[in-house]
Amino acid sequence: MKNLKKFEVWFLTGSQHLYGAETLEKVANHSKEIADFMNHSPKIPVSIVYKPTVKTPEEIYEVVAEANKNPNCIGIITWMHTFSPAKMWIRGLNVLQKPLLHLHTQFNRDIPFDQIDMDFMNLNQSAHGDREFGFMVSRMRLERKVVVGFWRDEEVLEDINVWCRAAAGWNDWQGAKFVRFGDNMRYVAVTEGDKVEAEMKLGFSVNTHGVGDLVASIETIGKGALDALIQEYEHSYQLADGLMVKGDQRNSLIEAARIELGIKAFLEQGNFKGFTDTFEDLHGIVQLPGIAAQRLMEQGYGFAGEGDWKTSALVRACKVMGTGLPGGNAFMEDYTYHLDPNNPMVLGSHMLEIDSSLAAEKPRCEVHPLGIGGKADPVRLVFNVAAGNALNASLIDMGNRFRLLVNEVKAVDPKENMPKLPVARVFWKPLPNFKTACAAWIYAGGAHHTVYSQNLSTAYFRDFAKMAKLELLTIDAETSLTQFEKELKWNEVYYR
Q1: CA dihedral in degrees (281, 284, 290, 296; nearest 10)?
Q2: Any alpha helices (H) in 45-147, and if so which ranges?
Q3: Is residue 63 within 8 Å of 78, Cβ to Cβ?
Q4: CA end-to-end span of the chain, whole Å?
Q5: pLDDT of res. 230
């Protein structure tokens, strides 16, 4: 996804006829100015669309129903410029199907102390108009985000930016399709889950296609397309000697390109937004897709290995939320530990498939034995992931609900070379510390597969979890294991 401006967030202002035409005209003008300012702010990635002031139950219902039907509308922002009796909102809020942000602001930043009169007071009543609206939303038990502050403030704009991006990710899931090539890795538990429940609650569908269907797509790829993609490989990466034109492994590169083009053609033809595969089910494919998965993720597709459709869908949502932001979002796995008591770290990697958008340098394109799967040596991109603040997120099926687990981490540059490790890799220190983070993750049932994000903070997942009605657990600098275990128990009571 190249930009989010095609998506619309509708700006709805509440008032009532009690105040008269002159006041309502000022309300409309102020609302237009706020919506226009946000629409043109470089901080807001979507289009903010002003809608006429709503003053009656009928007007509220009609605009909400229209928002529900509009495919470009991904959410609504509400603001009560004056007092808007909240019983007027009941019918509209009852049918609302889009995410809701309640902006608690007022048009003027400062009170005009030497000029303030009752006309000013009657016009600028957000301080209690928004409380009236807030009561009704709470009374109806509706999820929403409340943003408080002056509408021109950078912090307010950033809060709205985060919510808009989360709304775009949630919207992208609605009606999305993800394909599994083959089934789940045999006997593995956490990558399984209830796909029917996921479609009912989260909006996306997951279906399996036999590997033979993918092989048929791979076999349709012609020489012209292959030559063009290999030229792209040569331009974009440092090719190992064996993969060069006269190298003894050149055919492996050609086959890897054929697999990438075949998968992409299959995804495009079926309108899929992501996929999974597993090295246990590759009948008819010469090598496990390595560079293919890496590059397709970089292009915006969701992916996870071993049939893990939940992580594939979460990768895709993070790709959408992070559109245009520096850094990447990728499939990841906690692979092995460095247990130096003075410097414990996690080495994150996977067999092949880490998205090259995370790379700290120009990736090397290499071919090496895989050691499992019994197929030809696969081509992959090898690189170190850039250092910096990041997080790992995991979507888990707990049986009676889906849980979203987030651990904030700090990636570090490796101090030692790893010349014999032929995969993309990253070292990170989990917050608040290694022992607490690992124990909390395991107590929460977190998966070994995650989305590793360089450009999304926990705030994005908090807003996303509200929209998706997901249980959210966070492990960060403030986490206490004792308190975390209590939260797990409280949540069990809440969800039962």
Answers
A1: -100
A2: 57-69, 90-95, 118-123, 126-139
A3: no
A4: 38
A5: 97
Place of tokens 């033979």: 212
Distance, CA of 482 to CA of 467 (rounded, Å): 28
Question: CA 133, CA 126: separation in Å to the nearest integer?
Answer: 10
User: Looking at the whole model, is its pTM more than 0.85?
Assistant: yes
Q: For 210, phi and psi rounded to 5 degrees?
A: -60, 145
- Write out the two tokens for 43: 């901080």
Q: Give the pair of three-digit tokens for residue 375.
A: 């197929």
187-228 pLDDT per residue, tens:
999 999 999 999 999 999 999 999 999 999 999 999 999 999
Q: Give the tokens for residue 176.
A: 């999305």
**Omega before 432 within 30 of 0, i.e. cis:** yes
219: left (phi over 0), alpha (psi -120 to 50) or beta: alpha
CA dihedral (484, 487, 492, 496) in degrees, to 10, reads -160
3-state DSSP call for residue 344? coil
Report pLDDT digits (tens) over 331-378: 999 999 999 999 999 999 998 899 999 999 999 999 998 877 678 899
Contacts of 69 (CB under 8 A, 6+ apart): none
pLDDT band at residue 302, thresholds of 50, 70 and 90?
very high
Q: Tell me the pairing of strands 8-14 and 73-80.
A: parallel
Residues 6+ apart with CB under 8 A from 235: none
Contact 269, 177 (CB under 8 A): no
Q: Tell me if residue 451 falls in helix, strand or coil.
A: strand
DSSP 173-229: HTT-EEEEES-PPTT-STT---HHHHHHHH--EEEEE-HHHHHHHHTT--HHHHHHH
- Asked if 104 contacts 76 with a C-beta cutoff of 8 angstroms, the reply is no
The whole-angstrom separation of Cα 287 and Cα 375 is: 5
Q: Are 159 and 151 in contact (CB under 8 A)?
A: no
Cβ atoms of 411 and 327 within 8 Å: the answer is no
Pairing of strands 8-14, 47-50: parallel
* Contact criterion met (CB below 8 Å) for 84 and 133: yes
